Amino acid sequence: MPTENPTPTEPTQNEAEVTAQTPSPTLTSETAPEGTEPTAEAGAEPKADEPKKDEPPVAEPLTAESITLPEGVTVDESAMTGFLDLMNNPDLSPQERAQKLIDLQLEYAAKASEASRQAYDTMRDEWATEVRNDPKIGGAALDANLGKISKIIDQYGTPELREVMDFTGAGDHPEVVRFLLNVSNRLSEGSPTPSASPTTPQTAEERAQRLYPSMAKK
Predict the structure, then answer these.
(1) Residue 41 · residue 33 · CB < 8 Å
(2) Count of beta carbons in the 10 Å neighbourhood of residue 179
(3) Helix (H) or strand (E) holding 191
(4) Spatial separation of the C-alpha atoms in residues 159 and 156, rounded to whole Å
(5) Rounded CA gap, 138 and 132, in Å?
(6) SS3 call for 113
(7) In Å, how far are 17, 27, 39, 82 from 24, measured between CA atoms?
(8) Burial of 151 (0-12, 13-18, 19+ CB in 10 A)
(9) pLDDT score of 93
(10) Is the pLDDT of residue 59 over 60?
(11) What pLDDT is stored for residue 114 in this prediction?
(12) How far is 153 from 187, CA to CA, in rounded Å?
């Protein structure tokens, strides 16, 4: 007995509504395999708050205002400029930057040493000028007074004392000269002067040149 093909039933109204509301899957919205992340759609823009992985963050340039120096310490403007240029140069490797920093330090250390030497020489010249122009020590009596001081050092001092006075410049200071001259005058009052050794210069001018070459007449 032939069977009749069942007549397909029409979907109910509720079934039709559910089917219409269900979105069709797309290539990018299909369910990702377990343990993987769904891929972004081609051409999609990254979110604004997501940093780009291939671009490192840009550091703010180093400035003189951002560096704290110890109280009372000042830095030469050209030295600071050279330091900042090295630190802010992105093309330098760590080794290159370290070497240039060492070279910069040595350069300005040499400049500081030379400036200190010049200041020392200037200070001694000023002291010697003050002694030469002093109305009681210098003038026409300068050579005789310096000769007295040299004789005192020969009698009571040592060669090392002369070296110290010359190295430190203390022998050029007006107060040191004045003190030694007062000692010489007190010791020579009312007492015979001991005879000088054969190696000691005999004239006041020679004594002055020996102890104070910077004050010798030119």
Answers:
(1) no
(2) 12
(3) none
(4) 10
(5) 4
(6) helix
(7) 14, 10, 18, 66
(8) buried
(9) 94
(10) yes
(11) 96
(12) 12
∠ CA(208), CA(214), CA(218), 5° rounding? 85
Q: Are 153 and 161 in contact (CB under 8 A)?
A: yes
Note the pLDDT of residue 117: 94
Q: What is the mean pLDDT of the chain?
A: 77
- DSSP H stretches of helix in the chain: 13-21, 77-87, 94-133, 142-156, 159-168, 174-188, 204-211
208: amino acid identity, one letter: A
Cβ neighbors of 128 (< 8 A, separation 6 or more) are 172, 212, 214, 215
Look up residue 114 and give its two tokens: 């030379």
CA angle 54–55–59, rounded 5-degree value: 150
59, 74 contact by CB (below 8 A)? no
Sketch the domain layout of the chain as residue ranges.
75-121, 125-189+199-215
Residue linked to tokens 């400029």: 81
pTM of the entire predicted model: 0.55
- Secondary structure letter of residue 26 according to DSSP: -
Fold of 75-121: Methane Monooxygenase Hydroxylase; Chain G, domain 1 (1.20.58)
- What are 172-190's pLDDT values in tens digits? 999 999 999 999 999 887 5
Q: For residues 212 and 143, what is the distance between their CA atoms, to the nearest angstrom?
A: 10
The C-alpha atoms of residue 190 and residue 170 are separated, in whole angstroms, by 30
**pLDDT tens per residue across span 65-123:** 988 989 998 888 888 999 999 999 999 999 999 999 999 999 999 999 999 999 999 99
